Amino acid sequence: MTEADDLRQHYQVVVVGGGPVGSLTALELARSGIDVLVLEAAQHTTDVPKAGTIHARSIQLLTRRGHFAAPDVDAGAVSTTFHYAGVWGLEITVPPGEGPAIAGIGQSDLERLFTARLIGLGTPVVKAAVVTDVDQVDGGATVTFTHEGRTRVVTADWVVGADGARSIVRRTAGFTATETAPTAAALLGLAVLDDPANAPKGWVRTERGWTVLNVNHADFSRIITFDLGGPHEDHRRPLTAEELQETVDRFAGRPVPFRDARSLSRFSDYSRLVDDYRLGRVLLVGDAAHVHFPLGGQGLNLGIGDAIGLGWRLALVARGQADPSVLDVYSRERHACAAGVIANVADQRERMRIGVDGDRLRHELGVLLEDRDRNRALGSAISAQSQPAPSALQDAARGDFAANTVIETDTGITDLIRLHVAAGDRGLLLCEDASESVRAVVEPPWGERVRLIQARNLGPTTVLVRPDGEVAWSGELGDGSELVARLAETFGGSARPCAVDECRDSLTAHGRPRCRTNVEPPPEARPARATDADGRDRAAAVPDPFAGGGPTRRRASTGWSCSWWPRQIRPAPVSLRA
After folding, report:
1. Tens digit of pLDDT for each residue in 130-182?
2. Coil, strand, or helix at residue 139?
3. Which of 416, 414, 408, 410 is closest to 458 using CA atoms?
4. What is the number of other CB atoms lying within 10 angstroms of the CB of residue 220?
């Protein structure tokens, strides 16, 4: 970790919060050559009984960004069974060649993985750094924090608040939000069960309430209770082992003895969603932007989508390659995703109610789950796979997810995921015709933002894919005007360069360009990209698919939840910058 005394005065981006979402956001930026500082309030990473479900779309995103090893493109579709409102039978299916449908990976394991890679890239990560204020100034922001009893101030072009539900960044920057009052009370803790064989396992509903026990016969079990009858009288009152024991016994209708309780906490169905994820030079990700009842394991996955959705866009803006308006697109897209999760969580809560209304809604849910098409649609929503993912890439339309598929290039056969990994933070433009005339349209203005790939098996269709796997445009190339317009919309700015002297004259006091057109910042303001002799990003987590070989797969450390890394998604090997 980095000592505060070693810090500089200014950074391109300061990320406040070094949990899994904050560290992933910082890693996405650092791998793109952006100068990042991470300030984390906690002294150490702790193994707490929180998020541990990684859904399909998060796996797919993390794989495309090189954090997990790429799956076998020839593997078939995979399905698994999950729960909705405490009822099992929800089907979650992923397309062929995309790896597993779900993984149990603790958030502390992800935090350790991403932080280790940040440190390997030389990115400063300061622990026990408690941010107290964020103040926007012309062309940037100041961040005030305390560390080891001293108050310090750093400046940044951009600040990302990843500091959780009680975000100081959100409050001090002045973000507004829409909130709903709590109507339910839940308790959470870890404990050693005295009689694990006879404990009520999984999701159990009684006429008094719900118990959810992740039973571990050899170690600590996670214990949760849900009381849908009303909110906590005092949600800030510390939870005791005695209260948790009494509640579990009462809801179960019999003694469920345990000992050595720890990591005790209360939570509720209170929700909050900021009205905009961007306010000037400050942006939010994760729980700093959205809070909801933790049903279906969707919160951490929302944060992963935030981090990846913001990372490539903010890197473009920080390098002076895109107008900051692309960050407003990030805000709109992620706000819609979070609103959808808050809605389905509220629906789950109502179906979990004790009484006649809850019974009726659960019966309706049972009927829905028996309808395979409706079941799969609901499973796609829970796993964030609601976007269509056509099996043939040439059939994909704007807004679809580009599922993994074989790509026949001019140098060999590879697949879409490996092309994403090799491209780093760049998008992919796949077309059958990669002639000099096409390259002249694409590469001079867009070469550092998009990698042009000759895909011999696509036919006449040209497909533009964002770094996060979403199709930005698909169609026949024609005169290229429609493609150029979509490139500008997706990756910022226009193909019209402005005068270099104009950009030099418009540098902010922090050395970053004010210019909002598509022009490279002058060399003194441009961060170096870590590349190898062939011009590929050295920070990419796995090799270029054309170079042969494959990623080394190895197991990450595990935490309290006995995280299971499916064989298909071992962490990709760490690649360090020279």
Report:
1. 999 999 998 899 999 999 999 999 999 999 999 999 999 999 999 999 999 99
2. coil
3. 408
4. 22
